[in-house]
Records
---
Amino acid sequence: MMQTVAELSAALRARTISSAEITQQSLARVAAAQPVLNAFITVDEAGALASARAADAALASGDSATLTGIPIAHKDVLMTNGLRTTCGSRMLEHFVAPYDAHVVARLRDAGTVLIGKTNMDEFAMGSSNENSFFGPVRNPWNAAYVPGGSSGGSATAVAAGLVPAATGTDTGGSIRQPAALTGICGLKPTYGICSRYGLVAFASSLDTPGPFARDALDCALMLNAMAGHDARDATSLDRPVEDYTRELRAPSSAKPLAGLRIGLPAEYFGDGIDRSVASAIATALDTLRALGATTVDVALPGVAHSVPVYYVIAPAEASSNLSRFDGVRYGHRAARYDDIGSMYSRTRAEGFGAEVKRRILVGTYVLSHGYYDAYYLKAQKVRRLIAQEFVDAYAQCDVIAGPTAPTAAFAIGAKADDPVEMYLNDIFTVAANLTGMPALSIPCGFTPNGLPIGLQLQASYFAEARLLNVAHRFQQVTEWHRRTPPAITARALAAEGAR
Amino acid sequence: MTWEVVIGLETHTQLSTASKIFSGASTAFGAAPNTQASAVDIALPGVLPVPNRGAVERAIRFGLAVGGAINRRSVFARKNYFYPDLPKGYQISQYEIPVVQRGTVTITTPAGEKTVRLTRAHLEEDAGKSLHEGLPADAGDVTGVDLNRAGTPLLEIVSEPDLRSSAEAIAYAKKLHALVMWIGICDGNMQEGSFRCDANVSVRRPGAPLGTRCEIKNLNSFRFMQQAIDYEVQRQIELIEDGGTVVQETRLYDPDRNETRSMRGKEDAQDYRYFPDPDLPPLVIDDAWIARVRSELPELPDTMRARLVATHGLTEQDAAQLTSSYELAAYYDAVCESLSVEDAGACKAVANWVLGEFSAAVNRSGIDVASAPVAPESLAGLLRRIADGTLSGKMAKEVFEELWGGDAGAESIVGQPAVDAIIDRRGLRQVSDATAIEALVDAVIAAQPAIVAEFRAGKEKAFNALVGHVMRASKGKANPGEVNAVLRRKLAP
């Protein structure tokens, strides 16, 4: 299933295919890919087929919307009523959500068909999807490589053509980095555009739900359904409804990006960037210039501090957010304990994996009496300075471009023993979470050994429509987003042929 | 050598909102365990808090009532600790920037009025309750958790260490208790835990720096508070006088043994790792909101007390008693308004009745002033019939009893018609007619020559006996004042 959401939507309306057929194809591909890719934690075949039948009825009666009948998958950090929601953790291995997250409900209301819940780094903590209790997700371009994280399952599901679109959450790059490493489009919207209600919190001030799809237009269609004010989230923004496809629908011209100023921060083009990545980004910038954009150097010296700032604030919030997993009311509880203290410690020792424990410990430390000012408070101050630098930079440019990650996908296990090396993977993505500004990643090339490379485009608050349009214009003249992972295509085709 | 006692109180006031501070669940007391706990209250994964404007508004009301500063921007913070009745593993409270700062409460002490300074008042959520009793018999050796109370809005009111005795502490607590009920932010029900105090107690030599304090937790009655503080003060003094030192710790009061016991020492004090709650933007209160709350604030008890003394001519004591509760004060005001009198004499009569017969009846029947069966208009009607001489004091009490008893259609008619109906039905109209009274007096003088002779011989007591005879002859209806006057005139030499 390599068609886009827009293509499938058109076919559904033309009645050349039914949602039931698409859904069955999707389920078959998921089943075929699962032993290799491990992209899903839970598949809801019965629910998906029922939703597909309902979608077909709606399509037949003319009571349908753009996304009616489109199969999607949700990252397993979003609560789905009646369906297991594990956060990739033993702690919630058997937890069935009793309610829908806001973005889940919105996509359900939009008529989408939920295929299942995708694998992820435990509680969204990780950049490789190796930190899942349910095992690592593998990169569809090369199964020995990671797909990135933490939304590795969703990215892989879209990249491998298991579903045309999926949701993810981005706390420090968890949508954009796996999108880059799997060769698809992933958008982190402005903080507050999509409600966090029902998103199991990792770092509340950074967590942002967003879409994965093959291209920018599909991401815009998904965002149209996901965005919107939610009174149950006090940080949800009450803004007029936007059509995020509006700029994309403007007629094309030779220079559709004429007048667009692209900022190039030296900090995104320095040492430590893989040569093939640097080369692909340079080529992409040439393409953007050819479309009429101009480039300008901007200074973002604070970006150098964004990873340390992030790795103070995110664990601090996580250490508190994850306190509710105490074995008292739901989730895992140790089988044996002597008193309440040992129940807590054994439950949490058994329920959480190593990376989650590491971050809880770091977060507890930086919030402790005597360290709070030196770490947490200082990190918050630097966070504000970084945000101000970006605001200043956007006086000189409309978008900022650069690589999404310093390298393409790395081999499974390559960085597993070096958390700091792993954290540096987030160097280009965390700033957008610290500022709350939108950013996306689109494919812009491949390494010599065939792994995708991502171009990150960032913009100021509420500039999603512009970002998506720049990506869309780029995709109108490039083919990177149309490439599909060959091995998976062959395997999936074989599976489909066997049906 | 003398010791000076230094006390500061932290008071947890449960705010009288229908729903919780961060969820829509009901706050009603006494429901079956865990039936009033929403997804937010039990801290399911993914849920988020949304502040209750009603709770914020009550905090503003309090801040204005004590003359404190309302912070235009205050911050909710997380207080992190693990406990089974704390579902999120943290309590949402306010730490660095509370909603209210400063303000004062004035108390009356034997030495006169004293102003107690407040440090702050901040919003926070209550925890649930751990249940050790009332669990199913087959549950085994377990502790239950009831999360109905989790998320109930609290205003924690912190005083400066300005109190110098247990009596002052009680006076302050009672004043605060009356105030929060007066301004309608708390039901004041101490049995249900709506108003509970922690007392920080230390002793020092007069003029010396503050001594080391101990905190006595969860005092939920004024009597226990007094006993606990007295015990703790004595314990600290004896400890120091025996050469020991007070260690900073948290203590619990055991009313059965009348002693405080150490709960945890300073070294066991937890690091709560406070930090601003990232789920909640700063709480912003604009001037318009404050202005509206101010305009809706009732006259405050201290202001009303001064008014009752200055313009109603009441004694300080009566005024203080009438303003001890909002309902009683409102009742008094309503009676005065119904009589449309403000002269000292009439007001004094109203105060006497409200504090006398009426309060006694309220206490006797154990009900609220608000649900008293005698409406203010009815008491006004009664007082009008005393003033116009229709009823004697004794008759008025009979009428009042009947009004209170509620028979004979008292539910359907109130005010003057109710009173007059009882007077008519029971024939309680006082006889003030001079001719009628003169006839009665003449008859008694004629019938009691012996007593008349005693009186004339100088025995003043005999006069009262003659009055009694006249009253009996009138079946109690004669106006006693008139009888007195006529009798004096007739017996005059």
---
Amino acid sequence: MTREEANRLLHAYIDGELDPAKTLELEAHLAENPSVRAACERLREMSAAIRDKADYHAAPAWLEARVRAAIPAERKDASARPIRWRWLTPAGAMAADWLRPAASFAAVALVTWVVALGTMRPGEDERITQEVLASHVRATLANRFYDVASSDQHTVKPWLSARLAFSPPVADLSASGFELAGGRLDYIGAQPVAVLVYKRRAHLIDVFVWPVEAQKTEQTLARDGFNIERFAKNGMGFWLVSDLNRNELDDFARLLAEQGAAP
Amino acid sequence: MLAADSVLLHHTDPVPLHKPVSEPKRRFEQLVLPHFDAAYNLARWLTRNDHDAQDVVQEAVLRAFRFFDGLRGEARPWLLSIVRNTFLTWLQINRPADTVGFDDGLVELIPSDEDGPEVLAARSFDRKMLNEAIAALPLQFREALILRELEDLSYKDIARITDVPMGTVMSRLARARRLLAESLGALSNISGTQVHK
């Protein structure tokens, strides 16, 4: 990779938009070139500074009230042509013209679908929360928690690494009363992820692990009687789901962040 | 009855209480209005003042309601694309001279960053300088930067909202960051702060 190309790709890299192959190439280049590495760090700093310091202009409350009031109770011009995303190619646009009568029926169906979907997935985090929760519940229902059942981290880690594009950190926390029980694979947020399963008395804890770009802040929440916790460390994101009580799950998360997140 | 309604609707009060809120309006409020702040933030950064941002957002949200059937996928990027289109219309009517700056020719005229992005150390500029420097960016770079850094949108969403290919989004972001670094560097020089080079 040339220096020019590396510099060009740095932006996509820090924005988490570079494909895996180019990412590997660029990271190899970064490892060899301290000056490009420094440029990358400065870019990251600048991006972080903008996020941190640039004004986010929240709307004044009275404006939202005024706009809400101005929205008519009924839509008068329902026949108006909808604004579409303009990602269609010219050929696609022609096809769309041709299909318009069918499209209006489809639009009604789609709006219904989007509304149903919208209530389920307001954002990326919410979607992942639901996916990890669903994975945990499915495993419980099917009583199939592991693809590899082992309390030995040196068995679980290679098994997962061999099947994923990354190697998840697997910690031995048995001294603190959290036994490793095994691991499995799942598919969360449109990517294959590692799931480590730990045991505390009769409770199972699912730890979902996958590489993340940004260090997201820690978060805890409860959903449908399960406790969920997430944090990121050393480039890996961790989502914990369990029916274990909040205090013990907090302890576990802390131990994991301290010992388990080391590569 | 009709007369009373029209009087009420011109008021800034919420929808008249005796009238049940219609199904589309309720769905719209649930799905789209949670993104009202995002709409305002974008409009505010595009217009660069509160008053115009208020006008643009109000118009954009009413338009969004009319075109609610056109919503595909996520509501936030969809609403932001309408805010942007509304802003461009507003710009043509109110500031026709400024639309000249909205030309990507500028991107091609300027050679790409040959020797790497020389971004100064981020600690060396303060909030006010940063906000002013972003506000001073040409429109197409400013909007790409705001959508990426403040709205945390993907290149794909930004490409749809700003109606350009993803490669252009990338080059606009690179250009935006470089321009910002340069202007902040110049600002720091003036104020005598240490600049990383």
---
Amino acid sequence: MLSRIADSLFWLARYMERAEGLLRVTATHYLLSLDKDVNGALTWQSVLETFTTATPAEIEATKNQTADALKLLLTSNSNSNSLKMIIGKARENARGIQDYITKEVWEEVNSFYHLINQPTLDKRLSSYEAADMLDLFTRHSVLYTGITDITMARGTGWGFMNLGKYIERCFETIVLTNKHYQMNHYKIHESKDIMQWRQLLMSLSGYELHLKTYRSSADNHDVLHQVLFNEDFPHSVVYSLGRIDRHLQDVTRRNVSEENAALMRCFGRLYSKVKHTDMDTLNNHTLHPYLEELRGEVLQFTKLLSQQFFSYA
Amino acid sequence: MGFLDQYDLSPNIWDEMYDRKQIREHYHKVFHSLEQFDVNALQQKDRLAGELFMNQGITFTVYSDDAGIERIFPFDIIPRIITGKEWNHIELGIQQRLKALNLFLKDIYNEQQILKDKIVPAALIASCPHYTREVFGIRVPHDIYVHISGIDLIRGEDGQFYVLEDNLRTPSGVSYMLENREVTKRIFPELLAASHVRRVSNYPLMLHEILLQMAPAQISNPSVVLLTPGIYNSAYYEHAFLARMMGITLVEGRDLVVDNHKVYMKTTEGLEQVHVIYRRIDDEYLDPLVFKPDSALGVPGLMNAYRMGNVAIVNAIGNGVADDKAVYAYVPQMIRYYLNEEPILPNVPTYELSDPEQRKHVFDNIERMVIKRTNQSGGYGMVMGNKVTPEEWIKAKAAIEADPRSFIAQPIIKLSTVPCFIDGTFQARHVDLRPYALCGPQGVQIVPGGLTRVALRKDSLIVNSSQGGGSKDTWVID
């Protein structure tokens, strides 16, 4: 496979996964913001800090304005991480590999792009239709995942798409987890009302799983276990790394080269760090550095991966 | 709805549907079934067609402010119809013409017999900017230079088809021919099925077959690629479309590298040799070591690999000398010279402005002439003698006198008209026809029909998409 195509597949998958994550967080936050909670209304501050490139002053001005926050997150041209920009970049990548991806995948990415570029969108997002629009976007995102799964051939390309997808998901979970525990000063041995954790869990589609799996009242601890170490939770860090492991094996088996060993070692260190961590060693002092290290190592692995397979220009 | 209510025809024009007394026979079926629809139903079909193009990404981008706006190429829903008999005549004419043009290219880059016999003046070739000395003496597989052509035909007021120009370099638009038919299948399924229209959908397979045959003979499983300038090229959709339909790899210049006179593509598994390149990049951008040194689209060293016969390039390099608009005037002589036959499809009379006598004639009769640049396409650089203002004419005249070899003149030919669905009514608009012909070792094959381009502005004769043109599905029916 051409290195350029592998590169574009990787980024197509990453951007689409990023869009999906952004949409789930935004939709969750939008619905929760309609409920008054004990601390008064939820603001958009944490979401805007995590997902946009807006300045602190802009965030301050936007955080209590739901319609403006939605615009910034979804349709803004100035925020380079808005849904519109992300889908635009996904489509740009898809365009360059139109002959490789199936017609169905291309048409889904393309129609999503045209949907998000409709001029009337801002108006609808500031009306009662906002939730419907968020549903519609999410449906497109899910549809993309399904169409990709059904129509794309397995092989090297599939491997790179999945590497992109799960690396992105891994990042997202680490970053979101860090943000939420930061707001609690990393106090994992205290217990916050589970209602307060709903935002994180629903953003990662894990709220129902949490209710079914964890019975203790040590919510801070349990939530951390779920998002980092629960093998059955498709958004957990360990699950994403497991998938990366599988697809990395596949890709290196199909593309034999001497440098593969170094890449495998780098990934092995990262994976075992998560697989073999004793949860008891994590506390309010060690959690933050631990998450930062993880993030750094995922970054390092991604860099190596792209050096190895995507150097062409 | 009343089809003919607003269908007004200008005098002295061949209308392909209506001979001013009655509907021509081959249009009966379409005419009568269109009459059954009301305006809303047709407008609905028109919208549906637009959405189909949009969702497939068959668009071009218009840049204004910082946001690019995507537009579709206008598509008119009413098919243009050609009879099987007319088509057979066109087919024979194009086959003959391409045979002669291929022989001309072989001759002009080798023995140059046609110059020695003074059929074509040597000065004309020597002054042609597209004559490529770098490929002199290079032999190409099966002596085929023009594998893919899009010869433009027009129909004059006498109902005859004329050749307007030969596009022998990288003609585009074939994806529209194929997609237009797919859209028609959605909007007029019964009508299409009932009309027994000849099939066009096998074009990509025919092309693929020819590309495979161009590979160096000893290769059993040749690797064929389509070389594109990239996603910002206006024809990028077509490149991706053709690559997908043929199952070949779509590459950009940066994906290729030349090592020891062989061409390779850079893959995740290392380098993989390429045997045939269907390029959609112009000659002068192909190899920065030989042509434009600042071209980032090409592949350094490609020409050497070509010269060594390690890679086939389709179409061949240097074809521009044969579709130069001044050389065009000599194609009938080429047909007589190489084939000893009379041309089946006539040329449009063409005046060479480098000849003082012809130039005077053109200048004296400018209101009946169109002046074109010999090396421009896309409808750019044209002077329509009946529309030009005195100031423009003074400027154009000066440009011509400074460099007469770069211009030719032709009498303005009123292109034939066909019905179009515009603003809820049927109106006559001018069209041309571009059939796509493929030359392989077995001869010339042409998919029946081709692309009908239509000038959507009233009374305009310019069909180019850059200047308000659109397209139509083209039916050849028996």
